[in-house]
Amino acid sequence: MRVIRRLVWSRSRAPLVSARRLSRFGGRTGSLVAFPDGQLYVDLRGYGPDQQVTPGDALAGFLRSFGVLGAAIPPEDAERAAMFRTLVAGRRVLLLLDNARTADQVRPLLPGSASCFVAITSRDLLTGLAARDGVRRIDLDRMTPAEAVSLLGRLIGDHAHADQDAIAHLIERCARLPLALRIAAERVRERRGRRGRRPGCRTR
């Protein structure tokens, strides 16, 4: 977080940060600095079972956030990117581009305005962004055990504290990676749901 504050207030160009692996500040960006003109988030699904989000679809979502609806959204990606850059020019807007796969997926989403701040998270180095677009890369370590327990507490509630040895084992099996912990937590919730739907508990 301190790194982001320094970048926001010290750089004259549009600040761009690429956080390798997974950012710990994801979901808490609103507390970093004041962005009165908007805070935009998109999961680009670069890594995972779901289909990746295309730059065109991401841009359409950004435009809708600024009140551009229906037929007013251009059909071509280049036109959407141009409209988006025009809308955010001179505004203090925060963009969090999460779970990016490639530089080509990210590049059309960059606003190009010195008033905006862009944070990108990815498991890839995204070398092309650093070389061509001036992105500063920050390699992030895994979550600490305490952070992992806190994440599980938000996801599965009191069960994260019921059996500390089991939770510690789960955290290490997931290598303290947020995505792996979220998947494990979802499976815990599914098992709890199945237990609550036993045949003898059916209602008519």
Short description, anyone?
The protein has 204 residues and is an alpha/beta fold. The chain has helices spanning 2-10, 55-65, 77-88, 103-106, 127-133, 145-156, 159-162, 164-173, 178-195; strands at 16-20, 39-43, 94-100, 117-122, 136-139.
Label this structure with key terms:
single chain, 204 residues, alpha/beta, Rossmann fold, 2 domains, 5-stranded parallel sheet, 9 helices, 43% helix, elongated, disordered N terminus
Mind explaining what this structure looks like?
- The chain is about 45% helix and about 15% strand.
- It is α/β, with parallel strands linked by helices.
- It folds into 2 domains: about 140 residues, Rossmann fold, CATH 3.40.50.300; about 55 residues.
- A 5-stranded parallel β-sheet has the order 2-3-4-1-5.
- The longest helix has 18 residues.
- The chain starts with a helix and ends in a 9-residue tail after the last helix.
Share of helical residues: 40-55%
Enumerate how many helices there are, as a single number: 9
The CATH superfamily of the largest domain bears the name P-loop containing nucleotide triphosphate hydrolases
Order of SSEs: HEEHHEHEHEHHHH
CATH architecture of the largest domain: 3-Layer(aba) Sandwich
Mean pLDDT: 81
Rg over alpha carbons: 20 Å
Tell me the structural class. Answer: alpha/beta
Shape label? elongated
**What is the number of E strands?**
5
